[in-house]
Amino acid sequence: MTNIDWSGVRDRVAALSRTPDGKVFGANGHEWLLEPPLVPTELAELEQQLGVRLPADYRGFLLEVSRGGAGPFYGLFPLRRVDGRWRWEDGGADLTELGTLAEPFPHSGAFNPADDLPEPPEEEDFTTVEEFDAAEDAYWELHDRVAYDPKLTVGTVYLCHLGCALRQMLVVSGPERGTMWADDSADDGGFSPLTGPHGERIGFARWYLDWLDEATAKAREPLHR
Predict the structure, then answer these.
(1) One-character DSSP codes across 48-101
(2) Structure confidence by residue, pLDDT tens digits, 24-52
């Protein structure tokens, strides 16, 4: 993979901090703040703990730009070292299964685990409210067990959220390593790779730098009166 030039990114983000509220979606969440980058020894310790080498463009970002903060939507989940262990924090970052990052992400195309579930129960099919409530509770318990099974996302790191429990993640192991995916399970939309206008897969660097270009363009737009 071609080396990414991350120089100037921190300055560009700092310049955007003067953008009026509301012009760039999610900026009220990250407030244009970037945490310090990792030093090489921290990155080495992180990868040793995870048991996996992170994709090159994300590694470069962590070393040259930031360990978290300003970024797409409500910003990048920050990497923190707590009691000697590294982890991503905030906004659903705990969905990242740190112990399974070396396992290959098993999917190569969009999928929705909820598609195979039966239809939810209808009240008119039951003689009492109690029976319907029990059937509905059982259905949603099954739904959540299937739709949110952590085995679905082994080998991925959750990097940000879009609000309403919608999130995006980076694949770090398996054939899809280095690509960005959307987790729309909260809307029963399942999982899908992020793609460009020609269907090409999008990696971390393009995902982040495209956001930065779009945010810069938004910031330059005139305010509507």
Answers:
(1) HHHTSPPPHHHHHHHHHT-SSBS-STT-BPPEEEETTEEEE-STTGGGS-GGGT
(2) 999 999 999 999 999 999 999 999 999 99
With CA atoms as reference, report the closest residue to 94 among 144, 193, 169, 202: 169
CB–CB of 14/217 below 8 Å? no
Q: What is the pTM of this model?
A: 0.92
Q: pLDDT band at 156, cuts 50/70/90?
A: very high
Closest CA to 77 of 87, 86, 65, 90: 90
Helix (H, G, I), strand (E, B) or coil at 147: helix
Query: Residue 62 has what pLDDT?
Result: 98
Q: What angle do CA 150, 79, 77 make, to 5 degrees?
A: 65
Q: What confidence tens digit (pLDDT) does each residue in 90-126 have?
A: 888 999 999 999 999 999 999 999 898 999 999 999 9
Q: Cβ-count burial of 99 within 10 angstroms (0-12 exposed, 13-18 middle, 19+ buried)? A: exposed
Domain ranges for the chain, please list them.
Answer: 9-220
- For residues 188 and 114, the answer to whether their CB atoms sit within 8 Å is yes
